[in-house]
Fold DNA-binding response regulator.
Amino acid sequence: MIAWEDTGHPATGGAPADLRVYILDDHELVRRGLQELLEGEGFVVVGSSGSAVEATRRIPALHPHVCVLDARLPDGTGIEVCRDVRSVDPSLNCIILTSFDDEQALRGAVLAGARGYVLKEIGGTDLIGALRCAAAGESLFADDVAAGIVGRLVDEDEVDPRTSNLTPQERKVLEFVGEGLTNRQIAAEMFLAEKTVKNYVSSLLAKLGFERRTQAAVFITAPAGADIPGLADPVRRPGVR
């Protein structure tokens, strides 16, 4: 997994002198500790919150140079916040800060447009360097890591034509549905809010022409063209009536 030390990027001089930072973490002590560390280095903390909803609303208006976003939150994830605020303002730079060394979260961070994904065990000096690089628009991901994630997405697109009309996230949710995971379990695996997973499930069911998730589970685990008891037709394919 990539942490700041692994990237090999030096601290950059391209970051703004008065670097403005927004902190999102649901633990108040973490927020205070980060703010004290950053302000001690001359950074300006323009805002902080423990809620994904509040951060999503405030960040575009405050326009910080870099956002430090906790991966797991009670009402969502830092990855979702990164994706949402960058959809409003693509110039925003975000770093996902997490306690978990997780491949799925790393992938989500890359796809959301984050500048980096760092573990909370990172040292203060390294975090400062990471923030300066991110604020200057540099990626903290090793080139082969980001390229590998994109490459795997291309490979996944080629694996199963049955799900070609689903988004990458919907296809991943469908895989977990096929494994029998609940929405809550899928949310934990994908670093998403449970409500977001529920929306993905509803969307993929509609696209595949199913009414129940059990049908989708059978669909994704059965061989192409198989006649599955309980389905009105043989396992369908998107766009086939």
Notes: Residues 92 and 179 are 36 Å apart (CA to CA).
